[in-house]
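ok trying this again, last paste got cut off
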Amino acid sequence: MATKEEISMTGFAIVAYAGDAKTDLIEALNEARKGNFKHARSLVEEARQSINEAHNEQTKLLSKEAGGDNMDVTFIMVHGQDTLMTTMMLLDTISFTIDEYERLAAIEKQLGIALPTNDIH
């Protein structure tokens, strides 16, 4: 049986990995706005790796539960799940947005214009 402490520690790990991913994703978006698409995509890849680590932590508990262990839901674990899922949605959204920024940059280049690029905080 997974202890309440083990479940909470897993929740903390998920929050930490997902938080690292979110930080990388926001930085990636800012880099894309500046036209640094290669760097933006490398940051997205780092975020994917952090999300995979969070998912691996989650899978450990899922496997125990599937094996018949009882699980006490903790608020930390719920927060971890929420953070992971919203970060996964952010990954999809920012990946799409980077593609659009790159498309816009190509159009602006053809037209000989450039739009302002303020950082997002």
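PB: full thing came through this time. The chain has a mean pLDDT of 92.
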